[in-house]
Amino acid sequence: MTITTGTGGNAFDGNITFAKDAAIVRSVGGAPLTFELDAAHSINAFNATTQIQSNAGALNVVFNAGVGGQGGSINYNGTINTNGGNVTMNADNSLSGTQAIQLTNAKIDTRTTALGDAGPGGSVQITGKRAAPTFSGFTATVQLNGVSIQTSTGDVSITGTAPGGTGVRIGAGTGQSQILTTSGDIRIVGVGSGVNDASTGPVSVQGVDLSNTLLRTTDGDIGIHGLVTPGVASATSGGVLLANNAVVTTLGAGSIDIAGESQANGTGVNIAAGAQVNSNRDVVLRASNDGTSDALAIGGAVRAARVLDLRPGGVDAATGNAVDRTANPITLGGTAATGFAVSAAEFTRLDAPTIVVGSNAQAADIDVVGPLSLSSALTLQNDGGGNINLGGALTAPTLGLLSRGNITQTAAAPITAGTLMARSTGASVLLDQAANNVSADTVGGGAAGAFRYVDVDTVQLGSVSVTGFDAAGNAPQLVSATSMAADTVFVRTLSGDLLLGTNVSSTSGTDLVAGARLQNLGGYTIGGAPWRVWADTWMGETRGGLQGSGLYPNLYHCAYSGLCAVSIPAGANHFIYTQQPLATVVIGNASRPFGYPNPLFSYGIGGLILGDTGRGFFGVMSSPALPGSPQGAYPINGVFTSAEGYAVRVVPGSLFVGGLPDLPRPDTLRDLPSTWVYDRNIGPPPICYATGPLEGDRAAQAGDVLAREWSRVRSRPNLSSCVDTEKRNGCSDF
What we know:
rod-shaped
């Protein structure tokens, strides 16, 4: 059924008015029906007894005021029960300038009567437009006082726009207003601008003003978007105001998105003391203004069961959609409150497992100007550009620093965390200026430029994951780093071990500096350009397959940025230790005869560690023994150095000098003589025995005495071999 009025000559012609106790009731039929009122001007039901109800099938209720462009409003104080039908109210009061829609103590329920929250329900859509107010008494385009709107699956949408005054105000007056759904979404959009009261001056206006109001859904989402355009706005004007115990909550899978913008000097979003924003899923707060005052003011409590995201943003005036203001910088900590700023006191009013400041689209700087200590995981994210500048101490169980620019810190800004992920996709990570203390859990990340991090004690390099925020999808995103890569990598522990729990690579070089030892927790590698591992000691370390290279893979007695007794060759990988091992050079013993020069001396090396071969040992060995030194034992001394850095202890050897050498001599007993003239025997004279009678037959010898005698001897006769018998043919016969 549709009721339509014609045009009228004045503001009261063409109105539709409900009389006191008027009732529109559907009592039969099951098919959906529509009850529609189209008024040239206004639709009025000022009595709380007015009733529109269906006791049968679903009844859609439609109010259209200001049809035909003549301007009109909707004023309804009664009850609407649709039994599953939709409720739609549209008012265009752009001519008269007073409020477009005002509901006072009205009750709208679109749930299926028999099923309540468990059944399907209709939606509620309330849309109002108006011109600048003609007097100061009505400054809201859509104003709901003490109303109750309840659906189950149906969405609730309330929109109010005006060139002057507040866009949407809910909860003004006495009694709490409430909007409740089960799985339906709740969306409130208000666009207003400054207005001047002739007697009092600028009037405080809001895009959306929620006071003493409950917005609650179980599994639906809640979006509140408010914008104040330039005008004669007071300093207390703003995009979204939650005040006077206003509560915005989701009980199940629903999330909350609040975006407020002042195009002047007011707040973008103001959650006043006593107000609450509470979600069992995610909460997003976006705010912006002209930068001269606080764009995001948090005096009440904000809670998210999963992720709370804070970032600059506002509202598109044409669509009412939330938008990001990625060029606006972010200031955290401290007391200054200009632009998008969140103070340390405001952080105490935030409660979420993870708080993300910024997003992957944020393109301006994030500055921490004062100390922040959180029990929540914290991620600072401006992957769209800008730098992250830490000027105050940061404490959080998990900290993510995700940037496209440089990530830097001052000496007054140490990081204390269980896990840290620091990543710059376009510049450097420079976190080596303060007493950072990430527990032995994990530091991870990387950089397009340098990655530098210093920790006061044991820390682990490893795979890390933090929660960021995707601006396009307006939802959390997991950001992970499974390895560490940068142009240069420098990680140092001032004390304790450095634990390697991921692969590390660099383009121009890696330095890992352990206050105690390196512990490779697996077969992790250091790749790319040449690397150096600095440690206090090798004792108890775990290399996990890492090996140095070059002539001297291991170097000793060299501290990072301190005393160093060795030269570190370029172009190779090295393990470098502060402690100095002791090696022993044992010089071997040698001998030579008297009068001869000393031989070449030799030595051996004991005490080498870590597979060193001693190729860096150089020395000179000498002995005081000269060629003419007397027979005896002389020391062999030596002076040795180690290019690897070993401390060297030398054990001298001994040189034994002997007597004159044995010269070759002839064998006079066995040597054959070269003549028979002067034969003689050197030894005792042998006795030559005669082989016949000394008085032999001279006739047999033909009278030749000598011939006879030669026949009697066994060897050539010598005078000393004859036996004198004092007879003939004796010795005298020779």
